[in-house]
Amino acid sequence: QVHLVESGGGLVQPGGSLRLSCAASGLSFRISAVGWYRQAPGNQRELVATISSRGTTNYAEDAKGRFTISRDNSKDTMYLQMDSLKPEDTAIYYCSAQNVLGDYWGQGTQVTVSS
What we know:
Layout: E1 3-7, E2 10-12, E3 18-25, E4 33-39, E5 46-51, E6 57-59, E7 67-72, E8 77-82, E9 91-99, E10 102-105, E11 109-113
């Protein structure tokens, strides 16, 4: 059974940083495309950043220059380094993995940016 478990969320002041982690199990992480998405109250889930199995990255416009997605295939873990956080970044952040066998999602971790 596939499990994706996010961690690292919390409360941070505007301008601060957080590093989210997502540990995967039960899937071939190395060959999976993985990514981070977020959903704020009243909004649809939206893309934050993705990274392919080969390491190619893609960012939402608002994330460019502030967020960095990475992966460590030796640990079956992906990361999202978030810097210069803004109140509008407040949301539940979900990690996701996709491969030929299906799409998988974590339960989410809350990120709140507030003074």
